[in-house]
Structures are given as C-alpha cells and as structure tokens.
C-alpha cells in the first residue's frame, strides 16, 4: 500500500470527527492562549517566590506543548498536508522552535536560544519570544474565530464604535499592566491616573509623559511601553477588524469615512493582503532604523550591555517611526549623552519623516512592482494622494527648518557648528509630528513656539501614524481657497478635480480641530490656573500643550507633570480624539446614518 493511499484511508476514517475535534481545539486554543497571557502578566508583573514562579512557568510550558499538539492534529486532519505546511509555514517554524526548546529543556534544563543569546550579551531574549509566541497564538485564534463567519454577522455596532473600542481596550490593558509592581522602580504601583495617562499617551503615539521613562520604569515597564507604541501606531486591532469587515461584507463608503483616511480607498479595495504588507514594511523599516541607530550611538551607551544597547536602538526606532516621541533618555535627545550625536539625529529624522508620510505613499513610492512599472512606462506617475503627502510633507519640513534656523540660530543653536545647526533645524521641523527634541522646548522663544503650534496643528499625512488635520486637509482647503480667489469653476489640485464630498470632509476636520482645541484650551485656563501663576509660565504653555496633545505630537514646554488631575483628563481626551480621528468620533456619536434624497430650495446669503 502506497503512502498516499494510506493517507487517504486515514482521512476518510477521521472525517466524521474532523469538525468536532478542530472546533474543540480552536476553543481550547483561545482558552489556553488567554490563560497563558494572564499567567505571564502575573509572572512578570509581580515579585514571585521561587515555587510560585516555577508553577507559573510550568503552565507556560504546558501551553507550548498544547500548541504543538493542536498544530500536529490540524496537520493530521488536513487532506493536503503539503499545502497545509506551505500555508502555515510561519506557524510551523514557531512549532519547530518550541519542539527544539522543549527537548533541550527536558534533557539539559536550559533553553537553546536563551543560552546562545546570553553568550553574546542578550540577557532577556527568551522573555521576548515567550511573550511574542503567546500573543501570536492569541491573535491567530481570534482571527480564525472571526473568519469563521459566526461572530461578525451578529455584531450590529457602528463601525466607528468598533474602531474606538479597540483603542479603549488597548489603553485599558496598558493601564493595568503599567500598574503592576514590577513595572516601576517606585515602591508599590503606579497611580491609576498616571498609568492611564501614560498608557493613553503611548497607545495614541503622543509621547507626553508625567514621569521620566528611563528612571521611573523598569525594563519590564519599558517593554510594555514599546508594545503599546507599536500596537497603537499600527492600530493592528482596529485595522484588523476593518480588514475582516471588508472581506466579510465588502468595504463601503461609510467604512472608509470611519477609518478617516487611514488608507487610500482604491488601495484598500485592491489589496487583500494589505495588513500583511503593512506589517512587513513597518517591521522592515523599524529593523533598518534600529541597525542604523545602533551604528551611530558611538560611546553614548558604552555603560550598557550589548542587549540593552540593542533594546535602546529598537525602542527609539519604533518610537520614531510610529511618531510616538517617547525616549529612554532623560530630557530626550537634548540629553548631554546624545545631544551632539548628529548622525543619530538624522536617523530619527528620517524615521519620523517616513512614519508621518504614510503607508500608502510609501507603497506608491518604494514598492518594487510600482517602481518597475514606472520605469517601464515613463508616462505613469505617482498617485494623487502620494503627491499631496510627499510635496506637502517636504514643503512643511523645509518651511519649519528655515523658520527654526532664522528664529533660533542666535539663541538655542548658539555655539553649534554649521552642520549641528542644520541638523537641529531639520530635526525639530521633521519631528513636529513625533515629540522628539534635541533642545529644551521650554527655553524657546514665543515666535518659534507659535510656528511649531501651526506645524503641529497641520500634522502628518493620511494613512500615517501621526496626527493633526493632515496634509490632505490642508491641501484641499488651500485649493478651495485658491479657487475662490481666482474664481475658478472647479477646485483643482495637481490637475485633478476635488469632489464636493472631500471638500466637505476637509472643512469638517478643520472645524472639529479648531473647536476641540479652543474648548480644551479654555478649560485648561480654568483648571490649570496654578500653572499660569508660576514664574515664567503663561497661556502659551497651555496652548502649546493642548495642540501637541490634540495633534498627537508630544512636544511640551515642561508643564505635563504639573497638570492637575482634571487637566490630565482633558489632555488624555485630546490625545485620544486626535488619534482615532475627529470624524470617527463624530460618526460614533452621530449613530446610524440615514440617507435621504430630499433637496430643499437653494438659499443665498452674503459671506464675509
């Protein structure tokens, strides 16, 4: 009997139990992965005695064994095992690692990867891949449940509500984790409001901090911040939810409006594997940034181990590309240890710029297939949305750099070399969306603070990790104003006509931002009167802080830690609304959309 014939007989024999067994394993997989994540939170979040720690680790090892068992069972039940292995190659690679580590643990009591990495200076790599594996299996099991088609049809929530809830859930988890005793160097745990503020800031990739990241948080706490920045920047939960909605029900106009320019409409509809593509490009850019940063630290991190130096590189690369602005240096890159490391500053500048440029523009500009297509057909150009993102982003950086150099060359940049002045000017201009700083923002003059407020208000491009009204809003509003001034029949930009719906959305975003910032600043003048009474402080500090929060930037003149509890709540709400999008919040509050074809007679009034 040949193997294929034997295999077919086995499949026929097992066919009757296939659905029940696989469904049970799927449910158990979810239970085990959730339990393992909970156990890991206890293990890393609390100081454990040796017996307790051993028991917790035993459960984690059991979960690994279960993952291997369920994978082999799925392979056994599959009618085409070779195709199954090709389809699940990454999961199979993870299983191979688990099997090797399990055998090594049984025979020697040590983990192969952990022992190897410790020999080259990486002390905690085992913890990283343990958390990654548990998170990975939790993610794929949830994705399989949603893909099954029995969950989403029962959901009757507004897509905007789902989008917002995903952020709220991530913020809540981050808050709980940051309050665990082992996450901070302080006695006890982090206060709830401060933990909520920090989690919101990291998840919304803003970067405003009420504590010093490097001295207040332990290594475990810094890892939690890193994960919050990465998940919040990519918004994997919400993005994955809408990808599932798209594949299940088809992506309509309202879903696009809810996402508020997260991706270009045509790109989203055209690419079934967009999420995978986003992840691949993001991780590739972040890894390249970490390597470049590691090569430019110089002697700044010589007092740290090799593993810690790489962690600093990875942390700042992820923080920069996601426009978070959270740094592991006291006072940020204005710290004396790295203040003169101009090559590191340029790496940060480039990462922030590409993060603010947006994934749609990055795909259009650097995707190999599109580059080859444009070289083969010279008449083809970059897309309309890419032109807006690229040209306006470059223009804003140049305006900001020139303005900073003209206004601060004799003050904050006094004594710097010519290269240092150019680097500092471009760094502060490009990082208007991220919150990194190489100078003391509180010492800057009123004119440059005002210019930075304008740049923070405009923010980054659509489909990026940055905030603000976005360059697309600015471009459309400017084009409409130009049409009014020149009395054109249509609003035109880059030889394209802007439809009325886009103009309406642009003005809505602009109006919401103006109202949101104005109302928040008014409330801050009431709640933060103690800051206004401080020597050297004024209304400009509150305006700067609020616009920075609403634009998810993270720059501050130094008043964040002095905010009152109510003031922190106002800033948190600003960061949250600025991150999820003003239109998203409006759609969530507005509820169900009802279409009407009624048209009333036109009205006319004087304008201006």
How are the SSEs ordered, and which strands pair?
Blueprint: H1 3-45, H2 50-77, H3 81-87, H4 89-108, H5 112-119, H6 125-147, H7 159-178, H8 192-203, H9 213-216, H10 219-234, H11 236-249, H12 253-259, H13 265-270, H14 274-296, H15 306-321, H16 342-357, H17 359-366, H18 368-376, H19 384-408, H20 418-430, H21 446-458, H22 471-486, E1 492-493, E2 496-497, H23 500-527, H24 529-532, H25 539-550, H26 565-580, H27 582-590
Antiparallel strand pairs: 1-2
Describe the structure.
This protein is an all-alpha fold. The protein has helices at residues 3-45, 50-77, 81-87, 89-108, 112-119, 125-147, 159-178, 192-203, 213-216, 219-234, 236-249, 253-259, 265-270, 274-296, 306-321, 342-357, 359-366, 368-376, 384-408, 418-430, 446-458, 471-486, 500-527, 529-532, 539-550, 565-580, 582-590; strands at residues 492-493, 496-497. It has a domain at 1-148. It has 27 helices and two strands. It has a two-stranded antiparallel ribbon with strand order 1-2. A hairpin with a 2-residue loop joins strand 1 (492-493) and strand 2. Helix 7 packs antiparallel against helix 10 (219-234) and helix 21 (446-458) packs parallel to helix 25 (539-550).
User: What's the helix-strand series?
Assistant: HHHHHHHHHHHHHHHHHHHHHHEEHHHHH
The end-to-end span amounts to 89 Å
Q: What would you call the shape?
A: globular
Specify Rg, calculated over alpha carbons. Answer: 26 Å
Q: Based on DSSP secondary structure assignment, what is the total number of beta strands?
A: 2
Strand content: under 5%
Low-confidence stretches: 148-153, 243-272
User: Main β-sheet: number of strands, strand sense, barrel status?
Assistant: 2 strands, antiparallel
**Roughly what percent helix?**
55-70%
Our count of helices gives 27
Q: Structural class of the secondary elements?
A: mainly alpha
Mean pLDDT: 81
Which sequence of strands runs across the widest sheet?
1-2
């Amino acid at each position: 009997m040949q193997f294929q014939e034997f295999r077919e007989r086995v499949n026929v024999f097992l066919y009757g139990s296939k659905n029940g067994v696989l469904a049970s394993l799927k449910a158990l997989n979810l239970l085990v992965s959730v339990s393992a994540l909970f156990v890991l939170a206890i293990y890393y979040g609390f100081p454990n005695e040796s017996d307790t720690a051993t028991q917790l680790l035993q459960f984690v090892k059991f979960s690994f064994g279960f993952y291997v068992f369920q994978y082999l069972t799925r392979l056994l039940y599959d009618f085409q095992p070779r195709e199954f292995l090709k389809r699940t190659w990454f999961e199979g690679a993870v299983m191979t690692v688990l099997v090797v580590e399990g055998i090594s643990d049984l025979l020697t009591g040590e983990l192969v990867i952990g022992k190897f990495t410790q020999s080259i200076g990486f002390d905690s790599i085992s913890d990283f891949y343990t958390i990654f594996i548990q998170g990975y299996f939790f993610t794929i099991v949830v994705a399989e449940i949603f893909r099954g088609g029995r969950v989403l049809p029962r959901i009757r929530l507004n897509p905007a509500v789902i989008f917002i809830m995903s952020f709220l859930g991530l913020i809540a988890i981050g808050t709980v984790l940051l309050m665990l005793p082992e996450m901070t160097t302080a006695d006890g745990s982090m206060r709830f409001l401060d933990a909520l503020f920090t989690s919101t800031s990291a998840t919304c990739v803003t970067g405003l901090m009420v504590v010093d990241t490097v001295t207040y948080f332990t290594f475990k706490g810094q890892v939690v911040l890193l994960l919050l920045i990465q998940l919040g920047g990519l918004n994997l939960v919400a993005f994955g939810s809408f990808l599932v909605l798209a594949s299940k029900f088809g992506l309509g106009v309202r879903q696009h409006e809810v996402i508020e320019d997260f991706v270009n409409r045509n790109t989203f509809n055209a690419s079934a594997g967009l999420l995978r593509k986003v992840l691949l490009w993001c991780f590739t850019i972040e890894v390249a940034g970490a390597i470049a940063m590691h090569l430019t630290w110089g002697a700044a991190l010589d007092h740290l181990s090799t593993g810690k130096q790489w962690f600093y590189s990875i942390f700042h690369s992820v923080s920069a590309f996601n426009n978070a602005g959270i740094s592991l240096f006291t006072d940020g890159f204005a710290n004396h240890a790295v203040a003169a490391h101009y090559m590191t500053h340029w790496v940060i500048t480039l990462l922030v710029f590409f993060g603010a440029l947006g994934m749609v523009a990055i795909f259009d500009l650097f995707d190999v297939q599109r580059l080859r297509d444009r070289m083969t057909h010279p008449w083809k150009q970059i897309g309309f949305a890419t032109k807006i993102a690229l040209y306006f982003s470059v223009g804003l950086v140049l305006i900001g750099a020139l303005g900073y150099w003209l206004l601060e060359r004799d003050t904050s940049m006094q004594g710097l070399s010519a290269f240092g002045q150019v680097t500092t000017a471009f760094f502060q201009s490009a990082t208007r969306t991220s919150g990194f700083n190489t100078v003391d923002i509180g010492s800057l003059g009123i004119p440059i603070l005002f210019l930075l407020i304008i740049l923070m208000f405009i923010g980054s491009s659509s489909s990026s990790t940055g905030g603000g009204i976005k360059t697309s809003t600015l471009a459309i509003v400017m084009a409409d104003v130009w049409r009014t001034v020149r009395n054109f029949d249509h609003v035109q930009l880059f030889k394209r006509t802007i439809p009325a719906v886009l103009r309406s959305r642009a003005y809505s975003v602009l109006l919401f931002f103006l109202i949101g910032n104005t109302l928040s600043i008014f409330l801050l003048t009431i709640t933060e009167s103690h800051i206004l009474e401080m020597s050297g402080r004024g209304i400009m500090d509150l305006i700067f802080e609020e616009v920075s929060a609403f634009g998810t930037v993270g720059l501050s003149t130094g008043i964040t830690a002095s905010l009152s509890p109510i003031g922190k709540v106002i800033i948190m709400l600003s960061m949250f609304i600025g991150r999820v999008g003003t239109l998203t919040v409006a759609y969530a509050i507005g509820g169900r959309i009802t279409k009407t074809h009624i048209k009333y007679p036109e009205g006319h009034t004087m304008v201006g």
